[in-house]
Design brief:
Helix content: over 70%
Family: Belongs to the membrane-bound acyltransferase family.
Largest sheet: none
Shape: globular
Number of domains: 2
Strand content: under 5%
Keywords: Acyltransferase, Alginate biosynthesis, Cell membrane, Membrane, Transferase, Transmembrane, Transmembrane helix
Order of helices and strands: HHHHHHHHHHHHHHHHHH
GO cellular component, one term: plasma membrane
GO molecular function: acyltransferase activity
Oligomer: single chain
Organism: Sulfitobacter sabulilitoris
Distance between the termini: 16 Å
Length: about 475
């Protein structure tokens, strides 16, 4: 079940909202927590029902491990608990990849059963590891079981983040805003959700046709011009932006509707003037997790510049592998590790900031090049696209023939660029709306515009459906 689906919008969400508020009204906070946890399991099982057992088992085992770690303060127990979570993630996400690697290297056929990747396993595994580590370090204490179940399973963040930390959510469950009707929260949440829905359905899904067209043409052996390759990759660059931004807006909007403030996960990353700033804005909660639970334990920047850069590379390589079981994801992470290293060396030894336009443009081009590996099915395809981008393919540089509606695609790209670089951040805009900081005329115009865009998105969903969110596969 997708947020951008009629099943969710006119079926699941109204029932979940009404049920949560009625439960809170008649049974208090515990009733609302229980109802929303149950609804979240229904949401999760909609995709592949057997994995509801996996999710419930992972939550139950980790809760018991957390209590045991808290009682014993055992480093060995904490290590085993983290290893169990990584082992579960490794089996479902990387076993097939490792089998292929062994087969390629040794020639031995490693037969594995078909493995269906559980939705959101990378996200809820990291959430539970953070909880276990904090319990061991004395930064948290095991609370009520139902609160922990809710923390991990709450459906707005379950499938593709944000990676919610226990200290960000559990304290809010005792506040009177949770699962109770507050007009300002519901209005702001619906507004943010509508903006996210429009980003996903109207922009990301439209841009997907350009990206898919490029990679499909290459897979068929069609000659690709430099212009076609750059247009296709810019389509993908904006597609993943609006796809992830749209999901993040919808997740945070849903949180507000239920009276919870989830952590921001996306802050206009293509407005970054350098790669360091990009990683402060893109997938913020993943970057925070990798910083707190990997980079800093490795020594961070406290053991000299060389060790700092080594730590950066380790974090980015593992961050790339977190996104997918394939060497192309490792290369994507390595490229960003290289970018970050160069950026830090430049700042350390030069101290000269590039002009704003130059910094913005250079950062964007670096990100586009890295996305080639992220989107490609394998190295051969990635290098073929890169070769085309540098003008190394047979067709004329400016040929534009592989896209069915190139003029429309260019118009969508131009509109997307205006939104990406000149429109205000949607979360900031809705926050100002929620605080009453917008002039009444502008607030009214914002609501009306969001309503029209949401209606257009709903019509498009009815007519042609929607693509799955890109981050669902992680």
């Amino acid at each position: 079940m997708l947020f951008a689906s009629l099943t969710f919008l006119i079926g699941f969400l109204p029932v979940a909202l009404a049920g949560a508020m009625l439960s809170a009204r008649f049974f208090g906070t515990r009733g609302a927590v229980g109802f929303l946890s149950a609804a979240s399991f229904v949401f999760y099982g909609w995709h592949y029902p057997p994995y509801v057992v996996l999710l419930a088992g992972a939550i139950g085992v980790n809760y018991l491990l957390a209590r045991r770690i808290h009682r014993r303060k055992s480093k060995g127990m904490a290590t085993i608990a983290v290893a169990v979570n990584l082992g579960l993630l490794g089996w479902f996400k990387y076993a097939g990849f490792m089998a292929e690697m062994v087969t390629a290297i040794s020639g031995a056929n490693v037969g594995l059963p078909a493995i269906v990747l559980p939705l959101g396993i990378s996200f809820f595994t990291f959430q539970q590891i953070a909880y276990l580590v904090d319990i061991y370090q004395g930064k948290a204490r095991p609370g009520a079981l139902m609160n922990y179940v809710f923390l991990i399973s709450f459906f707005p963040q379950l499938i593709a983040g944000p990676i919610v930390h226990h200290r960000e959510v559990i304290p809010q469950l005792s506040q009177d805003r949770f699962a109770r009707f507050h007009a300002e929260d519901v209005a702001a949440g619906l507004l943010l959700f509508c903006i996210g829905l429009a980003k996903k359905v109207l922009l990301a899904d439209s841009l997907a046709q350009g990206a898919d067209g490029l990679f499909a043409a290459q897979a068929l052996g069609v000659g690709i011009s430099a212009l076609e390759s750059w247009l296709g990759m810019i389509c993908y660059t904006f597609q993943i932006y609006f796809d992830f931004s749209g999901y993040s807006d919808m997740a945070l909007g849903l949180g507000l509707i239920f009276g919870l403030k989830l952590p921001e996960n996306f802050r206009s990353p293509y407005k970054s003037l350098n790669i360091i700033d990009f990683w402060r804005r893109w997938n913020i909660t993943l970057s925070t997790f990798l910083r707190d639970y990997l980079y800093l334990p490795l020594g961070g920047n406290q053991k000299g510049p060389v060790r700092r850069y080594v730590n950066l590379w380790i974090v980015m390589l593992l961050g790339g592998l977190w996104h997918g079981a394939g060497l192309q994801f490792v290369v994507w992470g390595a490229l960003h590790g290289f970018y970050l290293t160069v950026n830090h060396i430049w700042v350390r030894h030069s101290g000269v900031a590039l002009p704003r336009a130059a910094g913005l443009g250079l950062t964007f081009v670096c990100v586009v090049v890295a996305w080639v590996f992220f989107r490609a099915g394998d190295f051969a395809q990635a290098f073929a696209i890169l070769r085309a981008m540098t003008g190394g393919s047979a067709p004329p540089l400016f040929a534009l023939e592989i896209f069915a509606a190139a003029d429309l695609l260019i118009a969508i790209v131009l509109l997307s660029s205006l939104i990406v670089w000149f429109a205000p951040n949607s979360y900031d805009l809705v926050d100002r709306f929620n605080r009453g900081a917008l002039p009444p005329s502008r607030a009214t115009a914002l609501v009306q515009t969001a309503g029209v865009l949401a209606a257009a998105a709903m019509f498009k969903l009815y007519a042609s459906g929607s693509y799955a969110f890109i981050y669902f596969q992680f």
